Amino acid sequence: MAEDITGDMQDQPGFLDDAPARAAVPAEPAQAPYKVLARKYRPRDFGDLIGQDAMVRTLSNAFASGRIPQAWMLTGVRGVGKTTTARILARALNYQTADGGGQPTIDLTVPGIHCQAIIEGRHIDVMEIDAASNNSVDSIRQLNDSVRYSPVSARYKVYIVDEVHMLSTAAFNAFLKTLEEPPPHAKFIFATTEIRKVPVTILSRCQRFDLRRIDAAMLVGHLGRICAAEGVEAEPEALQAIARAAEGSARDSLSLLDQAIAHAAGRIALDDVRAMLGLADRARIIDLFEQLMRGDLAAALAELRAQYDAGADPGTILSELAAFTHLVTRLKIVPEAAQDTAVTQAERVRGSDFAGRLSIRVLSRAWQMLLKGIAEVKDAGRPLPAAEMALVRLAHAADLPTPDEALRLLQNGAAAPAGRPSGAPVGSSPPAGGGSLAAPPRQMMGSGAAAPSQAPRAMAPAEAAPQPQPRIGTIEDVLALAAKNRDIRLQAAIQRDVRPVRIEPGRIEFALGPNGDRGIANELSRKLKDWTGQTWMVAIVQAEGQSTLREQQEAHARERKDNAAGHPAVKALMSAFPGAKIVDVRKRGAEEAEIAAAAVDVDPGLAASLESGDGLHDVDGESYSDIEF
Q1: Spatial separation of the C-alpha atoms in residues 434 and 420, rounded to whole Å
Q2: Which residue of 76, 156, 243, 487 could cross-link 216, Cys pair, CB 3.0 to 4.6 Å?
Q3: For 331, what's the count of Cα atoms within 13 Å in the CB-facing half-sphere?
């Protein structure tokens, strides 16, 4: 009532005539609600769709030739464009110009009369159905009833069924007949993230497209274009971190970018993205990796604590360590991987350096230990101590000496270290030869560390000497000749079934094993004539014959194992590791045979250093290796 009286008084002449005149303030227009980037920059045609070139090419050819199927099945992880592709397909099917012309096409640069309504999801002939909330057989029965009627204004009635894997078994069965023989005016587009849950009877009636994860480099470029359109400045490293966190999802990357713009309130920096997502600093992850590979456990634990205090999750730190370990392994095998735009400069430079200094064995062991540590951190009630214990195992494994190195230390009179010297602090650096990056031993170096020997000069054709004829005096000579000519089947038969009786020039007699093929005699005669240029008589005789080569090898292997088991160093090992057994004994070269005999009183620290199992040497040149625990 007071407002009415005031209004009446203001309408009277002379009201506040002595007051200064005030200009009328125009009313502000109503501000449109903010639209998130994932919706604002949603692709409107196939030209805007990124990362799905194979699907776009197939659809282009299908529409150009008029081979348009009645149903499509779109599958892929979240945020790669399944529902967006379905809407674009609905536009392409119902494309029509204002004058009534047009035909189905994927060239949608000029919007048609139905395009805007389809994009906004309000077209009467394009029905989007959420299968998660309409998963019963009654919902599909209603769809089957409505599909019989012609479209109201468009060319086709298009049914977009999202999350189709949520339909019940009865609903799928009720859908089969309609999907197999739909009316000519109906098209179906299905989208799902769980393609394995869709019955094969449904899949066989659809044309399937697997939408791929979007490459990180492509996502970085896409985010950069959106930042330019929004007038937002962003560091390339920040966009790379967002693209990695999105894991190939365009929608996730745009949602994270939206959040980063609000978090930074200006220029988006890498530190802002790390603080927002709780990520670990990639440079600090590389520092932590180097400390672990160097065996500097005190520095590694301090770095882990510092990153945890800065907001990084322990599980995320181990995951980032595993990712960098994988990157170093890739760089060692495929150096060209460093040119990937998703790899930062620090990862490119330092990763390549680690790849040249660490062996595949060390990297594989670190990867396995990190995977186990990640699982432990996820299940632990206190993640930080679990992560610290994982780093303790990794750091100690990084500088364990090999058995060869331990024996050399024993030969020189030094105690064999169990990972690090006795009495040294836990975080101290290991000694040279203990597996550190500072002084990499044989196990930390690449496989090509040894310098190649000087290759002999190739003999000129004029100097070529005549090839001597192979001399055959034993069954081993026959086997060697078969191996030289790469006849694997004959090699196996000779080793397994032939019991030599008499071998002389031009004649071979042997007894055949119980499971041998009698055709081996004719085959061996023919092959020897081809290989030696002379005729050989090969006969199977009824005699006992000698042992086969395989039986001789097995007997020799048993003898070597028995001899190895009597060695003092091996006895010490067997007593230190109850239940261990010698699996193989191999002959080494003369140089390695010069390693001094291991003393009977083996240092107790040797046991911990023998877990990598490379081998032990005897004074006779025997190498006792592959000890299985």
Answers
A1: 7
A2: 243
A3: 23
